[in-house]
Amino acid sequence: MLSSIKVAGRFRRILPIFRHVQVHRPAQAASISCSGPRNQAVFDRHGAQQFNRLRTLSKNAPCILSSSNTFRGLQTSSICYDEIHTVQTPPFAESVSEGDVRWEKAVGDFVKEDEVVGEIETDKTSIPVPSPVTGMITEFLAGDGDTVVAGQELFRVKVTDEVPLKPAEPPKAPTPASEAPTPPPPAPASPPPPPPPPPPPPVQPIAVAGSIPTTPPPVPPMPTAPMTSKPAASVTPIVAQSPVGQPGLPTRTEQRVKMSRMRQRIAQRLKDAQNTAAMLTTFNEIDMSNIIEMRKQHREEFLKKHNIKLGFMSAFIKASAHALTNMPEVNAVIDDTDIVYRDYIDISVAVATPKGLVVPVLRDVGGMNYADIEKALNELGEKARTGALAVEDMDGGTFTISNGGVFGSMFGTPIINPPQSAILGMHATVDRPVAINGKVEIRPMMYVALTYDHRLIDGREAVTFLKKIKSAVEDPRILLLDL
Predict the structure, then answer these.
(1) Nearest Cα to 362, choosing from 318, 306, 416?
(2) I want to staple 428 with a disulfide (CB 3.0 to 4.6 A). Which of 16, 287, 316, 405 is the partner?
(3) At 130, which helix (H) or strand (E)?
(4) CA-to-CA distance for 136 and 105, rounded, in angstroms?
(5) What would the pLDDT profile of 277-298 be if each residue is shown by its tens digit?
(6) What secondary structure does DSSP assign to 211-249, as a single string?
(7) Other beta carbons less than 10 A from residue 1's beta carbon
(8) Which residues are catalytic?
(9) CA distances from residue 87 to 28, 140, 319 in whole angstroms, order as listed
């Protein structure tokens, strides 16, 4: 049986130039014949052990023998050592044309195959840039923070499987085995005796009252010319300078940092919402007692059956889908002089990440149950935390829910996510005294806020919409009865 192995490259030290390698695999033995334009070599080997030896020897050369066949149970692979790979920008989504590159490695770093070298931050998401091979980074073709486009060359990596060693520390100078003991310093000589005190000054005779002085009185100083005055405005005030560099004094510094593309995009969209929509906010409060009790009673069975925890967010998403179905104007949007009504419900959920606020979208929420919503939320949340959200995960959306209560927010007015027409803001659940059937009771209450575009949605529709969400959360049986 005959199989051919194509070899690219040159064996610099051990083997001659390989152009074509033929492996003969009879029943008992194997022979490998190598031919080249200048040198020829024939190796007779028995079994896979000798073939492995040849592969081991080839690691000292630029290339390893390559084949897609299996030789006696061993799968060969193709690796060209010392080859330089130039990595380009990965393809962007249709709505993205450029991004800013951020490097996570440095020149000279050893990277494995598929290890992330950097990322490209676009207006909507971050795209990781992995290394296609195992090797060492030799050059960056774009600086950190530079703007790059699709297909642009980013960096070069040299193929190698050896991790570069750190430079060895210089050896310390050996200390002599025995050193002559240092003689102690001589004791200081005793100080000489102090000199005798000087003789006291001669005693002046005490002047007797009525005696005549023998010395003339001192002459008074001669009068000087009067000084000329200056106007107050021409006098330069002397300001006491504060000491510089003294320890213990606080320092005041400023640092200017370029805004990330995502932060610039967030700022632009929020300002567009303020400049375009006529935003108005209405409020209500929700008694969370029933939903808390329902979760407490069924969370174990829910987790066991669906392999996902039951949270409160799914109840608000399901209630919002119910309200949007009954009030399609909240799910609509203004397009110039037209109103676009949508028969589908895609709810965006605001998620806070270290890089900024992102709003991944749950598609077709109207057909989801609580378990479907919780699983979709968990998947999108994990993508957001790891920076794996794609542009497609955030495109679209007909309504947004923002839960500031997870950070302790008590009250707030959310801003519409354009081009949508409304957004629901959730807040913290706090025990408060409320009137229940003429009695004061302590109930877990949550304030909710609905910000809407008053150009499209009137106050009556907005208040009715928020009351439908309140009713569906407080009594989930309304969803079953479609009330």
Answers:
(1) 318
(2) 405
(3) strand 126-130
(4) 10
(5) 999 999 999 999 999 999 999 9
(6) PPPSSPPPPPPPPPPPPPP--GGGSPPPPPPPPSS-TT-
(7) 7
(8) 454, 458
(9) 46, 10, 48
